[in-house]
Every structure is written in C-alpha cells, then in structure tokens.
Write a structure and sequence with these properties.
heterodimer, A: about 110 residues, mainly beta, six-stranded mixed sheet, four-stranded antiparallel sheet, 12 strands, B: about 110 residues, seven-stranded mixed sheet, 11 strands, about 0% helix
C-alpha cells in the first residue's frame, strides 16, 4: 500500500529565509506526486505536481519541488519565504493500482516570523 | 477557471438532525470525494464517487451516506448528526488519475 510521510508537523522560518518541507513516500512504481497548500479556513489548492520527465518541477507562488527516486522523496522548496506563505502544506501521492484515491500526508504547518 | 463550490461555509446543527452538505463542480470531472479534516488527523476520506450513482466507502464512512444523481453534484448526508461529527468537511473533484480540486470547505458544528 502506498503511504506518505511528512516528518515535520511544524516548521518555523523567518520572513525572507529559505524553506524546505520534507515529503517521503512509499510506492511500488513511478508515482504521481503533488503538493497542496491550505490557508486557514480554506480548502486545499494545488501548488505543483509531478507525473514524469524533469524531476525539478515549478509551481505557483514561487515554489518548486524535486523528485528523487533513490530517496523516495519529493521535497518542497522556496528560496525566500513571505509572511503570506504561512499555511498548512500537504504532500500527496497517487492515485494508483486502479484506485482513484490519492494518499495524503498529515501535513506540515508553516509559521513565518517577521 | 476550475470551480468546486460547497453549499455552506459554516453550519450549526443540533444532535439528531439530518444534515445535507452539497458540492458542485463545473469541470465535468468523473471523480468526486468527501473528506473530513480534524486537527492532528489530517484528511480522512469519507466517500468517493467515480461516476453518477456510483460510490465507494472511504476510511470513515460510518454515520454518513452520499448521493450522486448528476455528474456535477455530490452530496454528503449525516443521517443523525452527532457531536463527534463536528469537523471541517472538504469536497474535491478530479479528472481520472490526476490532481484534485477542492472546495472552500464547510465547518460544521453539531451541538
């Protein structure tokens, strides 16, 4: 069965600092990988996705993520964080194996200090 | 622009009431999902539907039912609301094996 681990429940950074959110997955084949962002009281919004090809993918709001098959990771990065980036971030994998259901990580809460 | 709408942003109901949460998507997606989200528990799938009148149970279907009579609309029904169903409810849709599009959520309080 596929699984997604986001090791960090909370991450605190200063505004202007760089950011990396970790995501590790367990999957039997080349996965579909996603990062979503959820602002307080809102639904989830797709930041970026990886299906195949270039392992470094660019997303909205200046985010990027790198797929590393050898490490089963898909970490999210941003070179300079803005206060408006404070939100919950979810990594997801799949769907697969004939199922339409993706698997989500538990999420990482990003706190941005001024 | 893709759009998933949910009938209410905030809802307060009494224990034992029947509650309907409506979700509509305008993207002609085959798949629709209902999740609940609670602090520390992440997203938990309640039900999903891969076609009109087709549904499958997710991880936590107890106390819920769903209806999908038209492709664009997916309803979540709490047959007899209980206080432990107080939560944020998120609807999503997706075109096949691809990314999901989420609605803004309904925060339901059962008193």
């Amino acid at each position: 069965a596929q699984s997604v681990t986001q090791p960090d429940i909370h991450i605190t950074v200063s505004e202007g600092a760089s950011l990396e959110l970790r995501c590790n997955y367990s999957y039997g084949a080349t996965p579909y990988l996603f990062w979503y962002v959820q602002s307080p009281g809102q639904g989830l919004q797709l930041l970026l996705k990886y299906f195949s090809g270039d392992t470094l993918v660019q997303g909205i709001k200046g985010f990027e993520a790198e797929f590393k098959r050898s490490q089963s990771s898909f970490n999210l990065r941003k070179p300079s964080v803005h206060w408006s980036d404070a939100a919950e971030y979810f990594c997801a994998v799949g769907p697969s194996g004939g199922s339409y259901i993706p698997t989500f990580g538990r999420g990482t809460s990003l706190i941005v200090h001024p | 622009d893709v759009k998933v709408t949910q009938s209410s942003r905030y809802l307060v109901k009494r224990t034992g009431e029947k509650v309907f949460l409506e979700c509509v998507q305008d993207m002609d997606h085959e798949n629709m999902f209902w999740y609940r989200q609670d602090p520390g528990l992440g997203l938990r799938l309640i039900y999903f539907s891969y076609d009109v009148k087709m549904k499958e149970k997710g991880d936590i279907p107890e106390g819920y039912s769903v209806s999908r009579e038209k492709k664009e609309r997916f309803s979540l029904i709490l047959e007899s609301a209980s206080t432990n169903q107080t939560s944020m409810y998120l609807c999503a849709s997706s075109p096949g094996f691809r990314e999901q599009y989420f609605g803004p959520g309904t925060r339901l309080t059962v008193t």
